[in-house]
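Supplementary Text 2. Reproducibility record for the structural model of the 203-residue chain.

All settings were left at their defaults, and a single model was retained for analysis rather than an ensemble. We include the record here because the model underlies the residue-level annotations in Supplementary Table 4.
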Amino acid sequence: MLRPLSLFLKNSLGLIVNPYVTIRELSIKTENFSQILFIHFFVFLYFFLSSIVKTGLHNPYFLTLKFNSLYLASYFGFALMIALFFLSFKLLKSHDFFLVNLIVLWSYSLWPTLLWFFFTSILYLLLPPPRTFSYPGKIYSLFYLSVSLTLLFWKFILYYLTLRFGLKFDLVKIIVSSSVIFPFVVAFSWLMYRLSVFKIPFI
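Retained model, structure tokens:
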């Protein structure tokens, strides 16, 4: 487990320092698929802890129900994105399609999403609603918005690089494929909201 762990830590840091080079290297390497197990463990850990916070330990049935709904919905979204990438590949007739590489790339792209959910949950515990329009409240809102936009921008970068190196798309193909992908993402987000699973989709 030491080699996958070292690769996971190295690549996770690389996504922050130099995402372009990191994603490009990940797109051409097929070994050590097990390195992504660590980020999926953190996804599992988040939903487990989140379910405990929201439902408590006193009712194992509701705890299990809440955890299963969050966890399964998140991986439905993950599988949806992989399927949409494959659909884009088939429509635009790009180079060879390497499913393993794409799963690795999109797994690493979960970092901004996971950090945002952790960040939001921690702030919810430290400063639960309702929040006022006082100066501290406005500073909090500005801080929250700044962090959220930074993570969203990072997510878009990883999304772009996944299409660029995972599917070998140029800018025109990325724009075309995004016009196909985004409506499905919006529909998935709306469905999760209507089912009261996620207010913001875990993608």
